[in-house]
Sequence to fold (110 residues):
Amino acid sequence: KQVITHGRAADGKEWMIIKKSEGMNIRKTSAYNAVKHDRKACVELLEEAAKKAAAATKALNKETGWDQHDPNTENVLFDDHMTKAYLIDWGMARKQPVSHAITQYRRITE
Fold:
């Protein structure tokens, strides 16, 4: 669970507190380094990484209503074996309906 808590300030602006991400940039993972010289395996790994990132976005939105709103390769970290994705850089985050996250998920994975 990345979001510790969230709420609304007296001025109406929404806020959230997230815990520090445990992951690392994809290029530093042992999973990526094991396949980076094998084009086919690398593409497969990157496609799976995109699905994990999109699923993390969708799950977080469903759980909290927040959308990270800037999904790109620099804003997603992974554990060393790339089994889990962590979203970072919440500067553009906003409340969004789940349907918005689903649209983003489809765009990223298609």
Remarks:
- Residues 58 and 101 are 5 Å apart (CA to CA).
